[in-house]
Amino acid sequence: MPVITADYGGMKEFVQHKVNGLLFEHRNPESLKEQMQFALKNPGLMKQFGEVGYLFSDDGRVPDIVEHCNELMKIYKRVALPKNLWRVTIDTNPEDCNLRCVMCEEHSPLSSFISELFKETGMKRRVMAIETVEDIFLQAKKLGVKEIIPSTMGEPLLYKGIERIFELSQMHGIRINLTTNGTFPKRSVKDWARLIIPNTSDIKISWNGATAGTAEKIMLGLNFGKTLENVKSLIEYRNIYYSRTGYYCSISFQLTFMQRNMHELADIVKIAAELGVDRVKGHQLWTHFEEMKQQSMKADYESINQWNEYVKQANEMQERFRKPDGERVILENIIPLMEDEVIEVPKEYDCPFLKKELWISATGVISPCCAPDKLRKSLGDFGNIYETSIERCWQVKDIRNWLAITKPNHFVEPVTCVNQ
User: Tell me: the pLDDT tens digits for 211-226?
Assistant: First the structure.
């Protein structure tokens, strides 16, 4: 069908004058009249124009609007970067650890994780190849990721490629966010500090007591006094580096909240202030083992009330004791619990990770949630880094559907956070 249309807007793009139709000057009736007269006088040419059809397809047919929109969406998804993805955690070496924390999913004396891993896979330890780490950094840089966290399970400083990770951090301008147990194995604290401080946004040190008696019964194999000295040396170097360069790496205490140690919460805040630790943060106990259930601060209404009292004491200590620079220690996630939280995470809950982070296991499995290993699997299959890219994973239908129904402040069942 030949077309007569104005030389304006979208139709001008689809109709070329005397190729597949006629154009008249926009809002000019005389120009329209001229083109209509031309059409009446030249029926043969108009037939030819009509046979040309749509210029942007091989056969001249106008594409189906639904198919056309689907193709456009594919292009948008391919080129659009996930701008809200700001951090990626890589489980470089989850089975490597020099401590046996009683609550740890893998390394607790109560855990059968490693023996089950061997039974299921033939492996006793999973280790991410450094070549995979290098590729993840390249992908992360392209996507504008700001931070990468080496393994939060096990001790990342035992990873053979740890120096390379800090080299990659500097090379690609991506900060490391480090979680460590504070033992600083195989070299001096100052040697570690020289490597870590210049390229790290925050160092989270696992801290589970204000006294040796409490901490060493939870983090089995820990020398509390030695770890305390390690933190002092780390902060000393951090402060020197800051005064020399203006770059400040924050240092945090990372706690697991449980009945065995929270009676010392206020004193932990005090120690943090005296040392110059910037932040005390933590999370409620994941009860991986039946034997640990009564250690949860959510075990019953009495334990919830006790937790709320500990929170009050911690806030009072925050006001009484300041860091050497006069600033308060930041308290994060140290907040009162509601009575119904004995059953599940409340319906209105602000998840700090949702839609912002991805986790990649040592075997390449990608997940949008930081839940323990087995619980992540219940969320669905979001791909494997050895078969897809971070960008494609972030754009595939499964993960977008999951993120769409899981609001940042509202969990839908089934959820990984229930009863935790």
Answer: 999 999 999 999 999 9
Q: For residue 305, how many other CB atoms are within 10 A of its CB?
A: 13
Indicate the SS3 state at residue 235.
helix
Residue 79 CB partners (closer than 8 Å, separation 6+): none
Burial class (CB in 10 A: 0-12, 13-18, 19+), 382: buried
Q: Is the alpha carbon torsion for 226, 232, 235, 240 positive or negative?
A: negative
Q: What is the pTM of this model?
A: 0.75
pLDDT in tens, 4-13: 999 988 888 8
Asked if 249 and 197 count as a contact pair (C-beta separation under 8 A), the reply is: yes
- Kindly report, residue by residue over 240-258, the tens digit of the pLDDT: 999 999 999 999 999 999 9
Whole-angstrom Cα distance, residue 95 to residue 107? 8
Give the C-alpha separation, 250 to 193, whole Å: 12
CA angle 318, 324, 326 (to 5 degrees): 60
Residue 266 is encoded by which pair of tokens?
């206020």
Q: DSSP string covering 354-392, please?
A: TTTEEEE-TT-BEES----HHHHHTT----BTTTS-HHH
Rg (CA), the chain: 30
Cβ atoms of residues 310 and 265 within 8 Å: yes
Q: Which of 7, 9, 24, 18 is nearest to 55 (CA)?
A: 18
Burial state string for 137-163 with b = 16 or more CB within 10 A and e = fewer than 16: bebbeebebebbbbbbbbbbbbbebbe
Write out pLDDT tens, residues 272-313: 999 999 999 999 998 889 999 999 999 999 999 999 999 999
Residue 57 Rama label (left phi>0; alpha psi -120 to 50; beta) = beta
| Distances, alpha carbon 176 to alpha carbons 158, 249, 329, 352, in Å | 16, 10, 22, 18
